[in-house]
Design brief:
Elements: E1 2-5, E2 35-40, E3 43-47, H1 53-59, E4 65-69, H2 75-78, H3 85-91, E5 95-99, H4 101-110, E6 130-134, E7 141-143, E8 146-155, E9 158-165, E10 168-171, H5 179-182, E11 190-194, H6 207-217, E12 221-225, H7 233-239, E13 244-246, E14 251-252
Parallel strand pairs: 3-4, 4-5, 5-6, 10-11, 11-12, 12-13
Antiparallel strand pairs: 1-2, 1-14, 2-3, 7-8, 8-9, 9-10
Length: 265
């Protein structure tokens, strides 16, 4: 698993900002929009598709993205979907997007040109080829040789999804985790968890709230993501315990492969 981006919806550095983090020379303070690349046994897929998706995939030397899995439909998580277009051409098939119904609706609205009659397009490569597979919280699904468990999270008043893959869970844009979902997040080796800033926020965890949640879930290691320019990498490292660290763009996290149920002996 590769953490492709660790930034908020406006990224870091913030355009026009002169704060110490935005002017920092530390590459770990440069954060593209949040997303993940998973190299599964049967191919590569992404979790979320932010605006810098193409840049992220080139940086990580991705070869052939075969699917996408979506947490929710905010712009910083879906606006790179057109960058999946090249993979549909190479595969000669539509790219499956695994998401909830509300996310599909938003994607269809935002990328309406991808769902019009192909004969009206200027050429065969003018729009991404996409298809949708419905997923639900608490119901594991199979993808490219992995079993993936969607986990219900809350992003302010919005229901979103996190994902557990084996011993690793990715939970971004979190404000709260329902009690029934916390039961699905125990026994983790690694938790990737969003932390926006130090001060409270109505739709995102702030640092103290995240630390309380980590103490409850007790993962062996936690990587913080979706961080704003109010959080400096070095300052976080010096103030946090060793098992909690800020992630950076390009961080690689190993995980234990869980085969889909039908492949389990």
């Amino acid at each position: 698993m590769v953490i492709m981006g660790t930034g908020t919806s406006i990224g870091v550095p913030v355009v026009g900002c002169r704060c110490s983090v935005c002017l920092s020379d530390n590459p770990r303070n440069r954060r593209t929009r949040t997303g993940v690349l998973v190299r599964a046994p049967e191919g590569e897929f992404v979790i979320d598709a932010g605006p810098e998706l193409r840049i992220q995939l080139v940086r990580e030397r991705a070869t052939l993205i075969r699917a996408a899995v979506m947490t929710h439909a905010h712009a910083d998580h879906i606006m790179g979907i057109d960058d999946l277009r090249i993979f549909g051409f190479r595969l000669h098939s539509a790219i499956p997007i695994h998401c909830e119904a509300t996310v599909e609706t938003q994607i269809r609205q935002s990328f309406s040109y991808a769902f019009t009659d192909p004969t009206t397009h200027s050429h065969q490569y003018a729009a991404p080829r996409l298809t949708f597979n419905r997923i639900s919280p608490g119901q594991a699904f199979s993808l490219l040789g992995l079993s993936i468990l969607p986990v219900r999270l809350r992003h302010g008043s919005l229901d979103i999804l996190g994902f557990r893959i084996g011993n690793v869970a990715f939970c971004t844009d979190v404000s709260t985790i329902p009690s029934e979902s916390r039961d699905l997040l125990h026994g983790l080796d690694t938790l990737v968890l969003s932390v926006l800033r130090r001060e409270p926020h109505p739709t995102h965890l702030h640092l103290d709230a995240a630390l309380r949640l980590i103490r409850q879930l007790q993962p062996r290691k936690t990587w913080l993501t979706h961080m704003s320019h109010e959080l400096d990498y070095d300052e976080l490292c010096s103030s946090l315990p060793e098992h909690i660290r800020p992630a950076w763009d390009g961080l690689k996290i190993p995980f234990t492969v869980l085969r889909p149920p039908e492949e389990t002996v």
